[in-house]
From TrEMBL:
It comes from Mesobacillus boroniphilus JCM 21738. The record marks 177 as: Essential for prephenate dehydratase activity. This is Prephenate dehydratase. Gene3D superfamilies: 3.30.70.260, Periplasmic binding protein-like II. Pfam families: ACT, PDT. Residues 201-278 form the ACT domain. SUPFAM superfamilies: ACT-like, Periplasmic binding protein-like II.
Amino acid sequence: MGLNIGYLGPEATFTDYAARQLFKEAKRIPFVSIPECMDAASAGEIDAAIVPLENSIEGSVNITIDYLVHETDLQIVGEAVVSIRQHLLVHRDNIKNWKEAELICSHPHALAQCHKFLHRKFKGIPLEYMSSTAAAAKHVRNHPEQNIAAIANSLAAEEYGLVFAEQNVHDYSYNHTVFAVLAKEGHDIYMAPTEESKISLMITLPSDRAGALHQVLSAFSWRKLNLSKIESRPMKTGLGKYFFIIDINLKMDDVLIPGAIAELEALGCTVKLLGSYSSHKI
Ligand SMILES: O=C(O)C(=O)C[C@]1(C(=O)O)C=C[C@@H](O)C=C1
């Protein structure tokens, strides 16, 4: 039986693109929000959820990290790094007067990736946040009577029959988003191994101890474990209470990583393995 893969819909989002590339044979199931998609994976309604995790211009997708840590028991089983090209799309009826567009809509992350472009060309024009870039494209398709534009990808232009008013409107040419593939613990999803392996840990420090973060980092450094990311997010239990997400560029082994985890636990930290997986460039 084939895999059922959930993604942030509707069709032709960047998440959909990642799903199409990673799981060519799978049945793709759209969800209107990231939490709904993750809930479906937790409930076993789909085999895995693909969700955006981090963008090179805008940073982390907080809803994904927070929901992963606070609300679900899902594990990261893979990641995909996708090149993101944002375009300004309009209904063909409005192609002649797109410069006078009265509203620009898209996903908040996509609008933020094009902030300088919007500031230059559409100063004072309202922005409308939508649940995804493709939802914005669909909205523009459905309202030809309004002179509005969407920021979305070329897949969405094709899917919703829109035309390019301007291409590549993201502010920095290096624009990449990392998507995580999430599945229930013990639910094996085959993903071909790649050259790049990663381990993601969630670490909570013992409360109010001087040098605790330094001790955590030294548990990795003396083992020569190369960290590729350290990020803090609120515990949501009080001001100043944060947990850390740490990524290590390594395959899980029987000695080094378990040793580091044991050392952190001996220091009074709580450590949770979020996943040990391969990174795919697509
Ligand atoms: O709206 C989409 O197309 C999405 O897949 C979401 C999302 C995101 O949340 O970051 C994914 C990639 C881009 O960075 C912009 C938007």
